[in-house]
């Protein structure tokens, strides 16, 4: 199975900060990667698919990049509504594993 | 508007079975693959299983393979998860999610609100 790691696991940031989260795969997954945002008590929300394609309706301050084994999610200017947990997920092969998550908290 | 409503969760003893359902509306159900994803209390997300539009392609997490069975009834716009030989570690909120395409890409833009399964004696 393909394992995903995320760094950092926890991030404390201020409104307006540029935030970068990294996701690494245990083997190459081309661009078969998604990023999700989850807020407490809510279902996950798809932000990015195919590593860099912004899901419809998602603000342009979110962007994704990478291919192969290393990927990044960047929030260009953190907004109050962005404080949440972020997960990457590989879609290259079954099982479609998720990363352990990165919690973004208010500094 | 896409709606996914899960049901069938509850408290069940270890070793017993439970069947989850997901009622879909607001889209042409048999045009899309579907997934089950779970989240144990206070933990991260775990993809459980997925099924293509015509049930021709199915995948499972290693942790449930041989115990859980995913199925769908396109005539009833419904997705199911038959869970057998339940264990304490299966305790989680189970989400139903709609794929982007008819094949299993895994990209899920629409999710239900989940149904809670608690496995305990």
TrEMBL record, chain A:
Keywords: Adaptive immunity, Cell membrane, Immunity, Immunoglobulin, Immunoglobulin domain, Membrane, Secreted. It is found in: Cell membrane; Secreted. It comes from the Eukaryota. Coiled coil: none annotated. GO terms for biological process: adaptive immune response. The keyword NADP does not apply. SUPFAM superfamilies: Immunoglobulin (SSF48726). GO terms for cellular component: extracellular region; immunoglobulin complex; plasma membrane. The keyword Secreted applies. CDD domains: IgV_L_kappa (cd04980). Residues 2-89 form the Ig-like domain. Pfam families: V-set. This is IG c660_light_IGKV1-9_IGKJ3.
């Amino acid at each position: 199975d393909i394992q995903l790691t995320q760094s950092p696991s926890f991030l404390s940031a201020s409104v307006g900060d540029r935030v970068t989260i990294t996701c690494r795969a245990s083997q190459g997954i081309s661009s078969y990667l998604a990023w999700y945002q989850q807020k407490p008590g809510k279902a996950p929300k798809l932000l990015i698919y195919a590593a860099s394609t912004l899901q419809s309706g998602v603000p342009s301050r979110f962007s994704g990049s990478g291919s192969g084994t290393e990927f990044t999610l960047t929030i260009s200017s953190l907004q109050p509504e962005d404080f949440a947990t972020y997960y990457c997920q590989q879609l290259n092969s079954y099982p479609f594993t998720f990363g352990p998550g990165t919690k973004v908290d208010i500094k | 508007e896409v709606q996914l409503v899960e049901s069938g969760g509850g408290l069940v003893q270890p070793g017993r079975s439970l069947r989850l359902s997901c009622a879909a509306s607001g889209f042409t159900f048999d045009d899309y693959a579907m997934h089950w994803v779970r989240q144990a209390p206070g933990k991260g997300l775990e993809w459980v299983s997925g099924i293509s539009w015509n049930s021709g392609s199915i995948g499972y997490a290693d942790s449930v393979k041989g115990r859980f069975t995913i199925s769908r009834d396109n005539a009833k716009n419904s997705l199911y998860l038959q869970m057998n030989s339940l264990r304490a570690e299966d305790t989680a909120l189970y989400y139903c999610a709609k794929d982007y395409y008819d094949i299993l890409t895994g990209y899920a833009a629409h999710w239900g609100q989940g149904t809670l399964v608690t496995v305990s004696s």
